[in-house]
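Question (not urgent): is this output format expected?
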Amino acid sequence: MLGHDVIHLRGLEFYAYHGVLPEEQVLGQRFLIDMDLFSDLSLAGSSDQVGDTIHYGEVYQVIKACVTGDSHQLLEHLAEDIAQRVLGQFPCTSVRVEVHKPQAPIPGIFRDVSVEIWREVGERA
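Got this back:
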C-alpha cells in the first residue's frame, strides 16, 4: 500500500509576531504548528538508516525559522511559507500544514483558530 506513509509533527509551539492588528506585530503570541509529511518510507523501514527517511529534527528547524522569522499578517501566508520551504528542502511528495492561533483577537470564548493547507510537490498557491 504505497503512498500512504506519513511522518507527523504535532504541537510545535513558538512565540511569534503574526497578525493583522498592529499590537499583534508588537506584542506577539503563541502559535502551534501541526505538519504531516507524505513520503515513501519503505526503504527506511527496511534499512533502519536515518539517511533513508526525512529527518524530522531538520524539518522542525525549517518550521521554526518560518514561524519565528519574518512576520506575516495572515495565517494562510505563514502556512504557505512553511509548506513551500519544506517541500523544497525534503523528499516528500506532499504536506499538510495546520497553523493554530489559540489567542486570536476574537471577542468571545473559543479554544482555537487554525488554518490548514495541503500542498504537493510542484504545486504553488
